[in-house]
Every structure is written in structure tokens, then in C-alpha cells.
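Postdoc handover notes: sequence design on the structure in folder B. Input C-alpha cells:
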């Protein structure tokens, strides 16, 4: 099916987040006017507010500037599948297997349990902790709720990271730069990990833990 106006602009916002920059900086990086991707430019003036679509040239420049493929951009533009009043849950061992996630890092397939929430959103995912890297804060078997759509992750946040290599990691953000994320473990026996932002499919803040 063709992509919608909202999907295309959502994907452009997603590319900026992936690069660790604002949409204005992304526009400049692509050789465009800094205001080209601003929210105010996405609809026309007046009461009708007709949608303005990003041009093919603009999209081509984004892909060239970021090294992103058209396929990857299309995946980012796909709308998150709606979910019922439950949050899917996997064990961390399952979460590290590609068969449980699609190419965009979103959950698919069978083998899910469910965690009920009063007001879930499409970006929520429940995982069960495995291993001791986050002990004593999170222990093996603890159930956590993660917001995959977190757009303002900061230093000190506890997060789950899904990598392009198929890893699913529960860590604490030790440092953030435009190109890298440093992930620390609570348990000092586990050294920190430095990941390139392009190696991260999604990074979601841990919202809740059941111990």
C-alpha cells in the first residue's frame, strides 16, 4: 500500500533521531534549507491546511546524506501495528532471536505471553530479564515494560536496546553523542558497551518493573 503523508514525515523524524540530530540539522546535512522539514512546513496555510509532501529530491538527499537505504526508510515509515489492551512479553533469551522480530525490530510471531495494562500504547513491549548484568537493580526473572517509541532518552535512563546484530540489551545510558551511545551495567563485573547509533534499531526507556 502507498505510504501516507503522516508516515513519510514520521520516517523523516525517525531518521533525525537515528542520527542524533534535529530535523533542522538533518535538512542542513542534506543540503536543504534548515526549515525544510519543520512541522510548520508540513501543511499549507489557511483553514483547509492541505498536506505538503516531502519531494522526491528531498528524500533522495536524506538517503544520500545519512547512508540509509530506501528499504530502511520505508520500514521506518510503516505505521506501528495497533495493539489491544495487552502488552506482548518475551523472555530476554527469546528477545535475542531474530525470529521474534521483523526487519524494523518490532515483535512478530508466536510464543508471546501478555502483560495487562490499563492504558497501553502501540510502542510498549514487556520483557523478562535474564542474566545478572543489571543486578541488584533488576534480577533474573523480573518483568519490565519498555517504551520502544521513547524519543527523549537521556544519560542516566535505564533502557532496552535492540541492535542490528540481533542483540536485545537491558542497560543504563552512560553517555550519548551524535554518533554513539555508551551503555553501562549496574553490575560492575560487566564492562560498558559503546554502540554506534546506526547499529541501533530502537532504544526504549524502561518504564516499569515487577519484582
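Designed sequence:
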Amino acid at each position: 500500500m502507498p505510504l501516507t503523508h503522516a508516515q513519510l514525515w514520521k520516517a523523516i523524524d525517525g531518521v533525525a533521531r537515528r542520527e542524533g540530530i534535529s530535523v533542522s540539522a538533518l535538512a542542513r546535512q542534506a543540503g536543504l534549507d534548515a526549515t525544510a522539514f519543520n512541522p510548520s512546513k508540513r501543511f499549507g496555510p489557511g483553514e483547509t491546511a492541505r498536506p505538503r509532501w516531502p519531494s522526491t529530491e528531498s528524500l533522495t538527499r536524506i538517503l544520500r546524506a545519512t547512508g540509509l537505504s530506501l528499504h530502511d526508510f520505508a520500514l521506518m515509515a510503516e505505521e506501528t501495528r495497533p495493539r489491544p489492551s495487552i502488552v506482548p512479553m518475551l523472555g530476554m533469551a527469546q528477545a535475542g532471536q531474530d525470529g521474534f522480530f521483523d526487519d524494523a525490530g518490532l515483535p512478530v510471531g508466536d510464543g508471546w505471553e501478555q502483560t495487562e495494562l490499563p492504558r497501553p500504547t502501540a510502542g510498549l513491549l514487556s520483557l523478562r530479564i535474564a542474566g545478572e548484568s543489571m543486578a541488584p537493580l533488576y534480577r533474573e526473572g523480573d518483568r519490565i515494560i519498555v517504551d520502544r517509541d521513547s524519543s527523549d532518552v537521556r544519560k542516566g535512563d535505564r533502557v532496552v536496546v535492540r541492535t542490528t546484530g540481533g542483540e536485545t540489551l537491558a542497560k543504563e545510558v552512560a553517555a550519548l553523542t551524535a554518533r554513539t551511545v555508551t551503555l553501562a551495567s549496574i553490575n560492575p563485573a560487566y564492562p560498558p558497551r559503546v554502540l554506534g547509533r546506526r547499529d541501533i534499531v530502537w532504544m526504549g526507556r524502561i518504564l516499569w518493573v515487577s519484582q
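Context for whoever picks this up: The beta strands are 86-91, 113-116, 124-128, 143-147, 158-163, 168-176, 180-184, 193-196, 200-210. Don't rerun without checking with the PI first.
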